[in-house]
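hey
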């Protein structure tokens, strides 16, 4: 599973079956991150070390039935120009934190050069960057993946926001800052 090329949806927990695209995602709220193609949720497992960096924790995909508090995250703005309660918008740089712990999405390199970004690979080679969890955050850029499918002008008007906000259930891509 290539993380940086994967499409996700941001959802408020327990709302994935009846989300409304008019429900905007704001910084600080509890969200689940669903892998669009598989329908599985991202979960950070603090009890399992990552395969690349033993000081970090495993980030994996889990079924809804296996989802716990480890599948709930908080989006935090990377810069102070945004704060809790502001809309999360296309192009924003942010940190992804486990909702109830000080653990963040993080990247660890197995070696150089960097050619692939993966959630967790069964075979780790020198070209792998693993997305895992750590108390040291990595910055991510969020990009809406639905331009051309929906009308962004309608969404901007619906929330009176001059930027392109992300909505519950709308597809997004998260790109590691160093990979842009």
């Amino acid at each position: 599973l290539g993380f940086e090329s994967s499409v996700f949806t941001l959802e408020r927990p327990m709302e994935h079956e009846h989300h409304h695209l008019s429900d905007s995602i704001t910084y600080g709220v509890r969200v689940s991150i669903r892998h669009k193609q598989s329908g599985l949720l991202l979960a950070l497992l603090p009890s399992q070390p990552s395969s690349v960096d033993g000081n970090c924790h495993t980030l994996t995909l889990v079924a809804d039935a296996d989802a716990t508090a480890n599948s709930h995250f908080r989006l935090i703005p990377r810069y102070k120009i945004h704060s809790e309660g502001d809309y999360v918008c296309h192009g924003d740089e942010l940190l992804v934190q486990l909702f109830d712990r000080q653990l963040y999405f993080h990247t660890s390199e197995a070696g150089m050069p960097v050619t692939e970004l993966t959630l967790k690979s069964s075979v780790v080679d020198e070209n792998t960057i693993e997305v895992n969890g750590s108390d040291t955050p990595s910055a991510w850029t969020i990009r809406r993946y639905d331009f051309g499918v929906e009308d962004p002008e309608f969404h901007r008007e619906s929330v009176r926001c001059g930027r392109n906000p992300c909505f519950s259930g709308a597809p997004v891509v998260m790109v590691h800052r160093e990979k842009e």
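Residues 112 and 127 are 6 Å apart (CA to CA). The radius of gyration is 16 Å.
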